[in-house]
Amino acid sequence: MSPPPDIDALSTTELKSLVLKLLEEVTELRRTVGAQRDEIARLKGGPGRPNIKPSGMDKATQPQPAETRAARRRRGGTKAKLVIHEERMLAAAAPPGARFKGYAGFLVQDLMIRPHVTHFRRECWQTADGKTVVAALPEGIDGHFGPELRRFVLAQYHQGQVTVPRLVELLRGFGILISKRQIVRLLIAGKESFLNEARGVLRAGLTNAPWVSVDDTGARHKAKNGFCTQIGNAQFTWFGTTGSKSRLNFLELLRAGHGDYVINTEALAYMRGRALTGPLIARLAEHPDRAFADRAAWNAHLDQLGISALKVNPDPVMVATEAALWGSVKAHGLLQNTVIVSDDAGQFNVGEHGLCRVHAERLVHKLDAFTDAQRAAQSRIRALIWRLYRNLKAYRCNPATARKAALQARFDRIFTSKTGFVTLDRLLTRLHANKSELLKVLDRPEIPLHTNGSENDIRCQVTKRKISGGTRSDAGRDCRDAFLGLSKTCTKLEITFWDYLGARLAVEGSPKIPFLPEIVSARAALPA
Asked: Do 367 and 433 belong together in one domain?
């Protein structure tokens, strides 16, 4: 900020305004310096930047139930929920003359963990033509480690967040002769069926879901910083780790494993929405080739049309590629009527988009106020936003046209008000520009008002990163993402991950678990 030409000529009001602006700039500089200091300390091995506590707006707007003892839910009996595997009769040292009065039950839950080595003696026969016939191994036997051990390793590593060295130590303590290399093989080798099921879950979710929420976090892969993106809703969760968090990358993930590029009506509409020039859109629209199998074929098409050589803003190659990816998403029947709810990160702003109101309120919550008047204005606006949020939650349960108009008018009053707190007024103006996305719930009452589900889902990736660091191979990265997503999906579908692994690994006695994408599709078809 440049100094005024004559500071002595400024009035008291102008001087006060100048001081407040300078204080805001000093605070911002202190925040920047603090962030840089924290980053330097982290790179040197010290503690990183502390997490900012959430504003608590969502919890504050929850109805508070009456804390009466009569209304508390009883846990219920334990015996009815358990399967009794063994009954043992215990004799009592009764004195002479005592009468037998039956038995007093006492349940004890225990876990039996011990090594079990099976030596399969397979018959070998030689046919008349000299060929050898060997007896087949039982179902579920794949290698020299049985299905129960493989299930234990997968559950401990992905759900229990146990590291590979600790797994080796744990299993050796049980009496299993196993090495670190063999543990890694059990985690990543031959897992194509799980990867395909995880991809199927994403496709089923994006095909049938009325909404999905998204989020991302940092991830390490091959000693490089990357990003893990979460996509999910109340029925499923899916993770994908890549080296970028751009909109182009997000659109590639939304294709759910498909690798083609398509120019269709949706792709052309996307180009117009991103301000691509009319002549370039016409070149792509009038060309007879509309579908391209992979990135190489698509880039060759852009070269042929002369689009790759253009150096203008916006970048025509980037916009056209994003549009072709969006066309592919729509061509495969994905996101037909799905709202994408995000925290206002730019890469997620595609298709029908809604914003998380908790993140919007958090911006007001984090503002630095320097005077009593500013703090009072901040507190008043936050209270109004909380009240609006509570009313929007009530509207979701009982939508009505009259209430919709009233909520829209209240939103305008809050976010166009002038408080005299310059930074707050600027922020309110910016939030008001996102009115259609912040009030998406008025048109689609089934969508959530926040992305808390995504933030809860992605914590397992954050925990895995803190405990195990990064991944070293593409197979390890894909397996980590797939199994964490399948574990979260099982939880949402009320399926025990242990039973799911047992069903897929053909563990004897495990319940049958249907293909998860089929369950996700069936749940999405049910009325809300």
From this structure: yes
